[in-house]
Design a protein that fits this description.
The structure is a single chain. With 304 residues, the protein is mainly β. The chain has one domain: monomeric porin ompg (Porin), CATH 2.40.160.40. Helices cover 6% and strands 51% of the residues. It has two helices and 15 strands. Strands 1-2-3-4-5-6-7-8-10-11-12-13-14-15 form a 14-stranded antiparallel beta barrel. The longest helix has 13 residues.
Length: 304
């Protein structure tokens, strides 16, 4: 299958009512640094104002390839049991462009030994734009592709729970509960996604720690997606990691703690399916910054 046919298939996958498979939200190799995107209960969990940006170029060399950018910022309020956040996402796949803006709110129950259980709410808008004129169709006057441009504004909300201790975290969430239509059709809907995220930190010796994590994503009409990763952390500065997405891709990532507040991450993954023959892999860049407004600064490294 050549590039044009593959892109036509991907476009019709999202627009034709005869296709019932669900469109997945974007994947990220560095998903463990993008928790607020899927779980509003994460807001304020870092106990400081934290900002993270990730840009992902998928299937490089493939015309009309997916491209995703996320930016999130969150902080606890003066009453530290309450956290607030904001998430913006730009997701492009050929003629389909989605822009999402969401606000996040969390409330935490705090326990001894720095443990907490947070409950979160997420609400916002999904702006959908489909430039159908860029598609090459085999059927003239396709009723699903009559207009050159499809614009849709879909409000939505979600919720999540997040448990955190100094050595372990676990979260469950569904960031978009309402199954809104892409184009007014009852068949073409944003499918509800369910996420589970778990991980921890293991001290090996005075120089090295291990941080294993896993994320499971489920939605109707699509296979269960499971990401497994492990990072070896050297002296709380250098993160060397590997990731495996079950039945789909494997990858590597490296992150460096440039200062106590600023972290830079790079990642690459390669598919295990036949589509890998038509692209040069996937690449990500991540920037994270923790703002400190007190004299003590950032007192300890943040692993999650």
């Amino acid at each position: 299958m050549n590039t044009q046919k593959l892109m036509l298939f991907l476009g019709l996958l999202l627009t034709s009512s005869s296709i019932t498979f669900a469109q997945q939200d974007p994947h990220f190799t560095q998903y463990f640094d993008n928790a607020l995107f899927v779980n509003p209960a994460y807001a304020g969990s870092t106990k400081m104002l934290s900002a993270t940006a990730i840009h992902r170029e998928q299937w490089v060399g493939f015309e009309g390839r997916p491209s995703s950018t996320t930016f999130s910022i969150h902080s606890p309020l003066s009453y530290e049991s309450v956290g607030v956040g904001f998430t913006a996402v730009r997701d492009v796949l050929g003629p389909l462009k989605q822009t999402m803006f969401y606000g996040d709110f969390s409330y935490s129950l705090r326990f001894k030994k720095s443990r907490s259980l947070a409950f979160g709410l997420k609400a916002g808008l999904n702006l959908i734009n489909m430039e159908t004129a860029t598609l090459n169709t085999t059927q003239e006057s396709d009723p699903h592709l009559i207009t050159n441009t499809l614009n849709k504004v879909n409000p939505n909300f979600g919720f999540g729970v997040y448990y955190r201790s100094p050595k372990l975290f676990f979260g469950l969430s569904t960031p978009k509960i309402i199954e809104q239509s892409y184009d007014g059709s009852a068949n073409n809907r944003e499918k509800r996604h369910y996420f589970a995220l778990v991980g921890g930190i293991i001290k090996m010796n005075t120089s090295w720690k291990l941080r294993p994590t896993a994320q499971v994503k489920m939605t109707a009409g699509a296979p269960i997606s499971m990401d497994l990763s492990v990072a070896a952390i050297h002296r709380d500065q250098l993160y060397l990691g590997a990731m495996y997405r079950y039945g789909a891709a494997y990858g590597i990532f490296v992150q460096y703690q440039i200062s106590q507040q600023f972290r830079l991450g790079l990642a690459s993954d390669f598919g295990t399916q036949a589509l890998r023959n038509y692209n040069n892999g996937t690449f990500e860049v991540m920037l994270s910054y923790d703002f400190s407004f007190n004299k003590e600064g950032v007192r300890s490294p943040r692993y999650f």
